[in-house]
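W.,

You were right to be curious about this one. When I first looked at the sequence I had no strong expectations either way, so I just let the prediction run and decided to look at it fresh. Below is the sequence, 233 residues in total, followed by the output.
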Amino acid sequence: MTNRLLAIAALVPVLVRAAPDAPAPAGPYARIAFLRARDGNTVDFEAGYVRHLEWHRRAGDAWAWYGWTISHGDRQRSLVYATFGHAAGDFDSAVSPAEDESDTSINVLAHSEFTGSGLYEFLPAISRGTGVPAPAARAEMLTVELAPGTGAAFEAALARSAAPPGETLWFRMAAGGSVPRYVRLRPADTLAALLARSGEPALPEPAARLAARTTVEILTLRPTLSLGVPPAP
């Protein structure tokens, strides 16, 4: 009976901390991308990225852009930039695409290079949260790569298991790399809070058996490298 209750609880949406007056997401889609400074020159890269965010602000971009640096992981000091809570059509009506690309080339790609960019779909049935992360100071990012054809079984295994406590957001890659691939974000206020979870298995055993590769990285939110992200409460 206990196991059945835990499985049901994993499927029930749970209220989590949200930013005050945060609008409901327009849809389930997110873009998550990665940039690395050329020759380790993060000073020029970050200055250029700030200039590019200012272009977005002046252009009237209403999207929220999260900027995290990877503080612990093989991609340490890389920038993760992401936008969440979009309908599919939003990506066909982004603000001034040609001008955006031009400014990106001048201010961002002159000092960095892309190391990944994907479109993802939020999976509410196996998550706790709205699909838009809380603007916490830290976040754990788990990336899971599976063998071809095992995505449905992986999601079913997660649905049968109790979700971890707190905000837990699962995203399935729709385009941008090898699939099936999943990303899980778990925001936290402190590094200590993330380390307190280190004794937990990264995945429940039935799902772990399907994983070809799992990577855990710790992200630090960078307010100066973000746009439209509300301050943490």
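Here's what jumped out at me. The chain has a mean pLDDT of 90. And, maybe more interesting for your project: The chain has one domain: 2-14+25-225.

Coffee later to discuss?

I.
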